[in-house]
Specification:
The longest helix is centred in the last third of the chain and has 15 residues. This protein is an alpha+beta fold and 171 residues long. The protein has a six-stranded mixed β-sheet with strand order 2-5-4-3-1-6, sandwiched between helices. The termini are close together. The chain has one domain: ph1033 like fold (Roll). The chain contains seven helices and six strands, in the order βαααβαββαβαβα.
Amino acid sequence: MAQVFIQPSYGTPEARGYGRATLDACVPFTDARYAETLSPADLAGLSTAHPSGSARFWGATAKHDRRMDTVTAGDVVLLTGRKHVLAIGEVGHRFRDPAFARLLWNPAPGKCVWGNVYSLRGYWPVRVPYEAVWALPGFTVGDNFMGLRFLDPGRSAAVLALVAPETGRNP
């Protein structure tokens, strides 16, 4: 079964700007300006996951390195904001590359940059209210899903069943 994690992505104006750059549109990672920052292994991994040469991307900060090391192709992320799951993504390739992340999101000087990056080989815009997630076994009413959170297998299965109609994936 795929691992499921929840990640705030659309809550702040800054995050929404990053999302417009790398979630709302695919990034042509084979273009020279992107490709030259990637290691040969990561360029190959991205090219395998995304033969078109472009993909959607999201990431996490260095404080999440250990947890992000567990993310593999096929894992599912719920991208949240404004008290809704606003998109569901299926991981294509995960890697650590702060230079690539800085190029993708161009944060203001002094802002924290994501070093952990993952591509999405599947991406489904949705509008699932938090209440629908809270109603699942193991979730708490009123939880606003602040910060990156990895779900245990039971909650992962419940979430996958909830979003299956939206994604066409079998839970």
